[in-house]
């Protein structure tokens, strides 16, 4: 009798714990009242409703039902833009646990991306994350692992590998990939990303080394804005529209534009599951807090392919892609005779899932997801590591660690300020 009572208590205890663990679930996995009919909009909660967040409220096929920000002024502007009636949250964890939210859209500074994405994945939500995917390589690994474990649909919000004309090339990326895949340019290839090939590195995203100490405005919860970042005195230039100039939150022009520019290159070079093995940098010594500029960053892959980030922009007439058999210039101009006619004879690249709403409904992996997005975010973070240390770094593509470099490896998993942990 005693054993039966004990067993029954243990069974009930485990059942209640299990039930508690599954109280927060997205509507697409529920039946009955919470079931999402195919004709319904997916609901979205947006974390970070500054200018970027507010710009994504009305994505086709979704309805914004919840917003979160640590600045009450942002929340007021967001409510006005949405016409009111939307649930407000100060703490992002409350939004993530809101059972009415299907998709969590993360539009905060990058030092929050990894932590929020992992929390959303654990809560069963699908995730739409602004670029860069994460501020560190280690955080990217954690996001990739969490999404794989919990089966979420993840979208990274840079779209050039599958949509729109690609900056100075003035054609969609699939046309560049088609050319590369034909072999007409030869192999290995060198890709140069420069203002002369149509790409602006936005060096106005630099930090100030003489920040004044100021009083945080009453509408901003500065401690929560900092979150996992080290505590530093408030200054207007440190937050909101100019945060990109500080290492604790982003990585300047490379952090801002790097994944836009590099993800398509990774795609058309066929490097979605591979990282470069050497990263070289030519730059002034960087300040410990404020991001500066750089002249050149060069990535080299094991097969000899290179990606060159030309920040100085002193060389004009550069080819965007240079191979042993030919070159491709800005505007999709080539030195290969009759290139366009020859290209038309080859098949187009394989189709991709480019409708995020459809991906969420059908549970198909989105074109730019937690896996290939991790590798292009790592390209950005490899360049930033070399820049911060101001030296050439060697990287093990298989193990995803730096080779014989303790200081560089400390940048992979940077500590978070308590109580935050990923």
Automatic annotation (TrEMBL):
Domain Gfo/Idh/MocA-like oxidoreductase bacterial type C-terminal stretches: 169-421
Stretches assigned to the Gfo/Idh/MocA-like oxidoreductase N-terminal domain: 45-156
GO molecular function, one term: oxidoreductase activity
SUPFAM superfamilies attached to this UniProt entry: Glyceraldehyde-3-phosphate dehydrogenase-like, C-terminal domain (SSF55347), NAD(P)-binding Rossmann-fold domains (SSF51735)
Alphabetized UniProt keyword annotations: Oxidoreductase
Classification via Pfam families: GFO_IDH_MocA (PF01408), GFO_IDH_MocA_C2 (PF19051)
InterPro entries with a match to the protein in the record: Gfo/Idh/MocA-like_OxRdtase_N, Gfo/Idh/MocA_oxidrdct_glycsds, Gfo/Idh/MocA_OxRdtase_bact_C, NAD(P)-bd_dom_sf, TAT_signal, TAT_signal_bac_arc
Coiled coil location: none
Database matches in NCBIfam families: TAT_signal_seq
Protein name: Gfo/Idh/MocA family oxidoreductase
């Amino acid at each position: 009798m005693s054993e039966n009572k004990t067993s029954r208590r243990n069974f009930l205890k485990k059942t209640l714990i299990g039930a508690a663990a599954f109280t927060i679930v997205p509507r697409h996995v529920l039946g009955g009242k919470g079931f999402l009919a195919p004709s319904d909009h997916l609901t979205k909660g947006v974390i970070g409703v500054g200018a970027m967040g507010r710009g994504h409220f009305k994505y086709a096929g979704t309805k914004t039902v919840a917003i979160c920000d640590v600045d009450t002024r942002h929340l007021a502007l967001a409510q006005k833009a949405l016409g009111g009636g939307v649930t407000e949250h100060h703490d992002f964890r409350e939004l993530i646990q809101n059972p009415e939210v299907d998709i969590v859209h993360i539009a905060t500074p990058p030092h929050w991306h990894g932590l929020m994405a992992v929390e959303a994945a654990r809560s069963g939500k699908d995730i739409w994350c602004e670029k860069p995917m994460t501020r560190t390589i280690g955080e990217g690994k954690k996001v990739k692992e969490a999404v794989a474990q919990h089966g979420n649909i993840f979208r990274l919000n840079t779209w050039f590998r599958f949509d729109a004309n690609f900056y100075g090339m003035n054609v969609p990326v699939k046309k560049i990939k088609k050319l590369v895949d034909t072999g007409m340019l030869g192999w290995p290839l060198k890709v140069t990303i420069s203002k002369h090939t149509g790409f602006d590195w936005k060096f106005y995203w630099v930090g100030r080394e003489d920040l004044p100490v100021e009083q945080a405005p009453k509408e901003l919860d500065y401690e929560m804005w900092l979150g996992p970042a080290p505590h530093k005195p408030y200054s207007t230039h440190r937050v909101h529209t100019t945060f990109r100039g500080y290492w604790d939150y982003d990585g300047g022009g490379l952090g801002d534009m790097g994944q836009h520019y590099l993800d398509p290159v990774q795609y058309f070079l066929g490097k979605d599951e591979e990282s470069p093995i050497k990263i070289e940098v030519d730059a002034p010594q960087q300040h410990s807090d404020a991001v500066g500029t750089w002249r050149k960053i060069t990535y080299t892959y094991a097969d000899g392919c290179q990606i060159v980030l030309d920040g100085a922009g002193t060389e004009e007439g550069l080819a965007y892609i240079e191979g042993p058999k030919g070159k491709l210039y800005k505007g999709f101009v080539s030195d290969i005779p009759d290139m366009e006619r020859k290209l038309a004879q080859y098949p187009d690249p394989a189709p991709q899932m480019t409708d995020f709403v459809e991906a969420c409904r059908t549970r198909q992996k989105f074109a730019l997801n937690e896996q290939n997005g991790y590798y292009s975010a790592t390209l950005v973070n490899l360049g930033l590591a070399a820049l911060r240390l101001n030296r050439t770094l060697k990287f093990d593509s298989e193990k995803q660690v730096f080779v014989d470099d303790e200081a560089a490896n400390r940048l992979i998993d940077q500590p978070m300020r308590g109580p935050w942990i990923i």
